[in-house]
Amino acid sequence: ALLSSAGCNKEPANEIEFGTVENCVYQNSYFPLSITLPMEWSVHNLESRQHIMEVGNQILAGEDKNLKAIVKASSLNTVYLLSVSKYPIGATVPSNPTLQCIAEKIRHMPGIQTGKDYLFHLRKVLESGQMDITFPCEVVSKSIGGKDFDLLQTEISMRGIIIRQKIYVT
């Protein structure tokens, strides 16, 4: 699953805060955001979060030079705030459910006013990538903790395995 805070109504501080995890609770006062995590889940450090982002970008862009440039430009405005998985990275398990919380600066895109707008553009980028991706349903709205999110679901086929994602954006 992916939670993405692609815009906020408050004026941001000069420097974004990554947030902290204490007693199985992720807190970020910059956004403000609080997520209670399962006790047994593994929290990824900054190096692991960056590696996950780089690998994902490589898989998406493949050898497409134009898409590589788009992904690189986007990554300059993207911060991986939190990444946790049910098992430690590299565990010998058939699948490893993961939750990621990502923030992207979108001020340079004044046409994006809602999570649905953001997901429209994200879908176009994903469709142009190197992955075999489908979207099993249309974008829907959900409320989580009293905050409205728009949800895009994806299914990515890789080497005979289906990876299912739920991308929540506000």
Describe what this molecule looks like in 3D.
The protein is of the alpha+beta class and 170 residues long. Helix content is 24%, strand content 36%. It contains three helices and eleven strands. The strands form two sheets. Strands 1, 5, 6, 7, 8, 9, 10 and 11 form an eight-stranded mixed β-sheet that branches. α1 runs antiparallel to α2 (65-75). It is globular.
Structural class: alpha+beta
What is the oligomer described by this structure?
A: single chain
What's the end-to-end separation, in Å?
Answer: 14 Å
Mean pLDDT: 86
Number of strands: 11
What overall form do the CA principal axes indicate?
globular
Major beta-sheet overview: 8 strands, mixed
Written as H for each helix and E for each strand, in order along the chain, the element string is EEEEEHHEEHEEEE
Low-confidence stretches: 1-10
Helix content estimate: 10-25%
Hey, roughly how much beta strand do the residues contain? 35-45%
What's the tally of helices? 3
* Alpha-carbon Rg, integer: 16 Å
Secondary-structure topology with pairs:
Elements: E1 2-5, E2 20-22, E3 25-28, E4 33-36, E5 42-43, H1 46-61, H2 65-75, E6 78-85, E7 98-104, H3 115-128, E8 132-134, E9 140-144, E10 147-158, E11 161-169
Parallel strand pairs: 1-7, 1-11
Antiparallel strand pairs: 2-3, 3-4, 5-6, 6-7, 8-10, 9-10, 10-11
Helix pairs in contact: 1-2
Relevant terms:
170 residues; alpha+beta; eight-stranded mixed sheet; three-stranded antiparallel sheet; 3 helices; 36% strand
Task: Write a compact overview of the structure shown.
The protein has 170 residues and is of the alpha+beta class.
